[in-house]
Amino acid sequence: MWLMGDEGWPWVKRCDQRPRSKIGRLPKFLHRNSGEESGTQATSCLSRYSDIYKDRRRTSRLPSCPLSHSAMVRQFDEFSILTPNGMLGYGYPLAHFWHGVHHHKPSAIIVDSGSTDPGPYLIGTGLTLCSKSSYIRDLTPILEACSTYGIKLLVSSAGGDGTNAHVEEMVGFIREVSEEHGYSFKVATIYSQVDPAVVTKKFSAGAIHPCSSAPALTNFDIENSKLILAQMGAEPYLEILKDPSVDIIVSGRSYDPAPFGAYCIHRGVDPAPAWHMGKIMECGGLCALPKGNVMVATMRQDSFDLTPLNPIERCTPLSVAAHTLYEKTRPDRLPGPGGILHLDKATYEQLGDNRSVRVRGSVFVPSEMYQVKLEGVEMLGYRTVFIGGIRDPILIAGIDDFLDTVREKVQTAYPLVNSDKHTSLGFHIYGRNAVMGSLEPTPVATHEIGILGEVLAPTQEMASAIAGFARTACLHCSYEGQIATAGNFASPLTPLEQPAGEVYKFSIYHLMDIGSEAATSMFPTKITTLGVAESNGHTNGSKVFNGTSTHPELEVVDIGPIGYSSYLLAN
Predict the structure, then answer these.
(1) At 552, is the secondary structure helix, strand, or coil?
(2) Helix 132-149 vs helix 164-181: angle between axes, to the nearest 10 degrees?
(3) What is the distance between the alpha carbons of residues 346 and 362, in angstroms, rounded to a whole number?
(4) Alpha carbon distance 118, 128 (integer Å)
């Protein structure tokens, strides 16, 4: 049977006491005897899995020695998870979604709602990544499916950044749809904002470390952060999933694979395939060819299958394996809260339908110290931008000298520019090296270039004044070899300068040691009932929302050798 070693590592141990391996997969179950752990005391990070695996045992591994009543076995049941897209609010094809709901009968719909891709401004400004109408559009079919078929819904990093306010806002969207359509849901919320005093205490104890290339943290960074979030792992979800009456979980800032991994671990999946599936599925159908939206994962205890729901898409071993490169510096090591997923021995098998891939063989190695990533933001000032095109080949050839002339004129008029850290002027040259900057291997301008001017200043009015002066200089400054006396700069937009509002930077992008015992406790939760006071599992007899069917049928198509075909949606 599976026991826990003194070191807190999984230790395969049969009843004949012959140890097989001290470094293997996480335990399929923990043996319980009269409410106490048999074997040695579970320690370190793995202790947080003890409740997860309580009373989860496989009939195929019945130990030869007698077990107490608490060690009754339970057969693992295969199940599926559906994700409509890699980001709630980005939209998804309804026909593919409903095909997945009806054909695969998922036990959970899980969708990520957050990202740091837009930078720190969401946290600082309180804006959401997508509009309210986008969230309502995406949630409406999902909530219909959940209410009609009793499917659980997990939404992570609400609103894009996962602040407490955005968790409440997402719950408000769910309430609005539920009340309009007569649904009732028990909704659990998880919050991820961190008291700066907690961060200061941890910093003083030497328990905060830079993440990636972030600089060393200072007390000034903590004190000047407008808001601080912690990126939760699986544990807060697992705690809520103990209550089977909860229909929906909406969380604050999360490690993207966390809700996927948590739900699977709760259902008895080994942590390695649970986390591996989560890392892929949190991006929706990006691992398909061509890239898509709606994806289903079929879960087994030690493996999972991925199937895209667009009939012209397919997964291949290469497309799925290649997705481990996504946003990672190492494709063989995927670190996250509580451990590192090792993919050295992962295998990817093309299944008989020529569209699905089976994944197995990854290994989850718990961390010695449980850490969470902190995200804090500091306001820098206000931004105004302007954009224009340049077509003159003489000016393009001398563009660097020309922009230096513009900077000199601006600094003469506004001495604080580039001398005060809160006041600056910068240019991005599209058509040459705006994307990669100094890393661009071929910084050769084409027949035309686009100039994006960017001004940062302590006030919006000052930023716009400097931007206006700089844009005018771009339009009328002379340059060597100039022939025409007309304007140099073609502006496509009015107003000619565009106020862009507040500017923030990540003041905190660090890992904080918390220990496994705090992986749940530092994230408060709340449970609320939304919608009408009726039970779920009902419909109002209509498949119509705002005059449009939310159940478009998907025509059957033949999938070619490489998975490309055409399809039509029935009217």
Answers:
(1) coil
(2) 60
(3) 5
(4) 11
Q: Which amino acid is at 160?
A: G
pLDDT the model gives residue 511: 97
The CA distance from 226 to 29, in Å, is 43
How is residue 193 written in tokens?
A: 């904002």
Find, among 308, 183, 190, 184, the residue nearest to 259 by Cα: 190
pLDDT at 526 over 80: yes
Determine the longest span between alpha carbons in the chain, in angstroms.
96
CB count in 10 Å sphere of residue 404:
10
In whole angstroms, what is the distance from residue 317 CA to residue 347 CA? 8
Name the H helices within 29-158.
94-104, 121-125, 132-149
Q: What is the mean pLDDT of residues 183-208?
A: 97
Domains of the chain: residue spans and CATH = 2-71 (no CATH), 79-192+231-316+518-549 (no CATH), 381-504 (3.30.70)
Closest CA to 181 of 137, 135, 131, 140: 140
**Average pLDDT for residues 391-413, to the nearest whole number?**
96
Type of residue at 47: S
458, two tokens: 């302590």
Question: SS3 for 8-38, per residue?
Answer: CCEEEECCCCCEEECCCCCCCCECEECCEEC
Buried/exposed 408-442: b ≥16 CB within 10 Å, e otherwise: ebbeeebeebeeeeebbbebbbbbbbeeeeeeeee
What's the whole-model pTM score?
0.81
**What is the edge-to-edge ordering of all strands in the sheet holding 10-13?**
2-4, 10-13, 19-21
Confidence of residue 571 (pLDDT cuts 50, 70, 90): very low
Instruction: Give the orientation angle of helix 460-476 with respect to helix 399-413, to 10 degrees.
Output: 140
Instruction: Give me 164's structure tokens.
Output: 């407490």
H/E element, 219: helix 219-223
What are the beta bridge partners of residue 510? 210, 374
Burial of 296 (0-12, 13-18, 19+ CB in 10 A): buried
Question: For the residues of 132-160, what is the DSSP string, one character each?
Answer: HHHHHHHHHHHHHHHHHHT-EEEEESGGG
- CA nearest 83: which of 286, 346, 331? 286
- 70 pLDDT above the threshold of 50: no
The backbone torsions φ and ψ at residue 398, rounded to the nearest 5 degrees and listed phi first, read -115, 30
Cβ-based burial of 77 (10 A; exposed 0-12, middle 13-18, buried ≥19): exposed
Look at residues 19, 160, 37, 146 and name the one whose alpha carbon lies nearest to residue 87: 160
* Strands 108-112 and 79-83, sheet pairing: parallel
The structure tokens listed for 235 are: 């544990």
> How far is the C-alpha of 520 from the C-alpha of 236, rounded, in Å?
5
